[in-house]
Amino acid sequence: MPGRVLVALTGASGAIYGVRCVQRLVQTGHDVDVVLSDAARKVLAIEHRLSGDPLSWVDDEHVDHIATHGADDITAPPASGSRAPAAMLVVPCSMNSVARIASGIADGLIGRAADVMLKQRLPLVVVPRETPLSTLHLRNLLTLSELGVAVVPAMPGFYTQPTTLDDAIDFVVDRALQAAGLDAPLREVWRAPSEGEPG
Question: What is the four-CA torsion angle of 27, 30, 33, 36, rounded to 10 degrees?
Fold first, then answer.
């Protein structure tokens, strides 16, 4: 059985990426810890009219594979190096969260868990969803990259010829899970013209 994965949603636009990460992970056999910032809950409601309860995002058969934690619960297992998850994804990752992680600010569960991943040198992926990027944003992202964090911007590819918004979302989600080293096969891969249609 794959190890537990922590998915943290912060207040950037594109909360649907985090929802899809959770759905994809449980569908591929992973157990998932989920934490949402207060801002992420607002974005979910505004952009997608979705509940802030991750158990409502999945089918009944997958509910037992999800554990939820409050954003301020620094007693939750992912806050401890002795209980660190196999991988952590911050998706979407706001620029505020990028700056806090890059600065080592660990006053809530998301920051503390990210700090654990850094100190334990375990896979940490951030999926920033912001545009344009300021110089300060870029510096903070560079700092994370230098610390070994995988930066996977929410930039869908078009070589797979997506026809729906879902296709574009799934492209980003699959790349984020791949960057975390997780067993969740890509649903769309590059194919040369000589190989036929992409996908």
Answer: -40
CA pair distance 66, 91, nearest whole angstrom: 16
Which CATH number covers residue 49?
Answer: 3.40.50.1950
> 64: which 2 tokens?
């037992």
The range of the structural domain enclosing residue 157 comes to 5-195
Cα angle vertex 40, ends 151, 56, to 5°? 105
| Residue range 54-91, pLDDT digits in tens | 999 999 889 999 999 999 999 999 999 999 999 999 99
- Give the global pTM: 0.92
What's the structural domain count of the chain?
A: 1
Can you give the chain as a three-state secondary structure string?
A: CCCCEEEEECCCCCHHHHHHHHHHHHHCCCCEEEEECHHHHHHHHHHHCCCCCHHHHCCHHHHHHEEEECCCCCCCHHHCHHHCCCEEEEEEECHHHHHHHHHCCCCCHHHHHHHHHHHHCCCEEEEECCCCCCHHHHHHHHHHHHCCCEECCCCCCCCCCCCCHHHHHHHHHHHHHHHCCCCCCCCCCCCCHHHCCCC
